[in-house]
Amino acid sequence: MLTLAFDTSSKTASVALLDDENIVYEVTINSGRNHSELLLPAIERACASSGTHIRQIDLFACSLGPGSFTGLRIGVGTLKGLMMATGRPAAGLSSLQCLAMNARNCRNVIGTMMDAGRGQVYLAYFRTDARGRLLPLSQEMAAAPQIISECPYEEVTYVGDGAQKYAQLISSAPGQNKIMSADFQFIRAAAAGLLALEKYRERNLLDVQKVLPVYLRSADAVPPRPVFLRGNA
After folding, report:
1. Distances from the Cα of 50 to the Cαs of 3, 100, 118, in angstroms?
2. Same domain, 90 and 114
3. Fewest CB atoms within 10 Å of the CB: 73, 77, 110, 117?
4. What is the DSSP-derived secondary structure letter of residue 185?
5. Are 120 and 145 contacting, i.e. CB atoms less than 8 angstroms apart?
6. Both 134 and 55 in a single domain?
7. Is 220 part of a structural domain of the chain?
8. pLDDT by 10s per residue, the chain, length 233
9. Per 3-state DSSP, what percentage of the chain is helix, strand, and coil (rounded to 5)?
10. Where in the sequence is the domain holding 164, given as residue range(s)?
């Protein structure tokens, strides 16, 4: 099964082609250029490198947010265009869950933290179960980074560009916190592809007429208080 996955939710753009769980091709671009200039050429290169025509793709995958408003609109718009052009199904993924895949081998709770600008971060907590699946431990939120002081988990491994930006704050927060290196701070499209396969098997797929970006906040949004999900810790 061929899956074409891409992410445009942050400053990087990433595209991957997977054959079942095997990564055939992957590229992550951090050039500072607009994602609208990068995404379609990167998709074309992914297909050309493997001799794959776009109509041979069985499943499309795209992160829906949270993240850059402009980047998310570009990603979702491209996803809808591919769905309508090919008639193939697609899965939409949480950017924060995709980011957590960078740390899924950690035994600790995983805190995913993306820089949201305006002194905020996008934040969520996950844990990897015995089957290697990422289970959410909290709602996803846009909040001031100081909110991590309210985290109830004693050992958390934080990952993401927000964790890099607010490393000193994380280090001084209660608990035994760790920060993954900068090499793991951005989302890989392959992670979106692997998570999309899980959704495909569950038949949890997108309706092309209803799919929208997930922003978590508006221009005048008030940061919410954290809500942790019971029974998953």
Report:
1. 12, 28, 41
2. no
3. 117
4. -
5. yes
6. no
7. no
8. 999 999 999 999 999 999 999 999 999 998 766 888 899 999 999 999 999 999 999 999 999 999 999 999 999 999 999 999 999 999 999 999 999 999 999 889 999 999 999 999 999 999 999 888 999 999 999 999 999 999 999 999 999 999 999 999 999 998 889 999 999 999 999 999 999 999 999 999 999 999 999 999 874 444 455 666 654 54
9. 35, 30, 35
10. 97-184
Domain assignment of residue 88, yes or no: yes
151 C-beta neighbours (distance < 10 Å), count? 22
Q: What is the torsion angle, in degrees rounded to the nearest 10, for the CA atoms of residue 15, residue 38, residue 162 and residue 77?
A: -80
H or E element that contains 194: helix 189-201
Q: What is the DSSP string of 65-102?
A: ESS-HHHHHHHHHHHHHHHHHH---EEEEEHHHHHHGG
3-state SS, residue 226: coil
Tokens in use for 229?
Answer: 């999900």
Same domain (yes/no): 85, 119: no
Residues 6 or more apart whose Cβ sits within 8 Å of residue 79: 6, 60, 62, 90, 92, 206, 211
Residue 17, judged by CB atoms within 10 A of its CB (0-12, 13-18, 19+), counts as buried
Q: Is 0.85 topped by the overall pTM?
A: yes
Quote the tokens at residue 74.
């570009």
The number of residues making up the chain comes to 233
CA distance 31 to 28: 10
Q: Does the CA dihedral 16-184-65-231 come out positive or negative?
A: positive
Cα 181 to chain centroid, rounded: 17
